[in-house]
Design goal:
Length: 183
Amino acid sequence: MAHIVIPYGTSEGQTARISEFIADVLRGHGHEVESLDLKHADHLLPGGCDAAIVGASIHMGKHEAYVRDFVRTNRDALENIPSALFSVSLSAHGDMENAEKYVSEFEDETGWHPSRVALFSGALLYTEYGFLKRMVMKKIAQDSGSLDTDTSRDYIYTEWDGVRRFAEDFAAGLGQKAVQSNL
C-alpha cells in the first residue's frame, strides 16, 4: 500500500485532531501514514512518500504562514504525487463562500492547485482560550448570529462523517491510480 504523509498546521488543535482522524481512516485501509506538525517538523516533504494530504487552519483570515511556506517549498513534489488539501475554519460552518475564498487565496499565494480540496468546520474552544481571546471569539460568534456564546463550554463543528468520506475517497483514488499505472 501507499506511504502517505499528512503535513498540517494548527493553532488550537482541531486541525491536528482532524489530521489524526484522517490518518486512522487511511491506516484502516492498509496504508502507512505519517502526520507532521509543521510547527515542529522539517519543511521538506519526506522522501519516499507516495501521496500527501496538507491540512491548514484559518486564523485572522489566512492559513498559517508556515503551511504556505511548506507548500511553496514542496509544490513540485506535491504536483507529482496524489495530493490534497483540507482547510479548517469556522467559516466552513455557515459561510462556505468565505471558506472557499480562503482556499482560493491559498492556491494563489502558493501556486499549488490540489486535485482534491475539503473544507471542514473547526471548533470554538472557549475553555482553552485565555480571557481576552474568549471574549473576542464570543463577540465574533455573536456578530455572526451564532447562539454558541456560552463561554463555559466548547463547540465542535467538525462533521466527522465528512472527514471520513474525504479520507476514504482519497484512499479510493490511490487504488485507482495504482490500477491505471499497472495497465
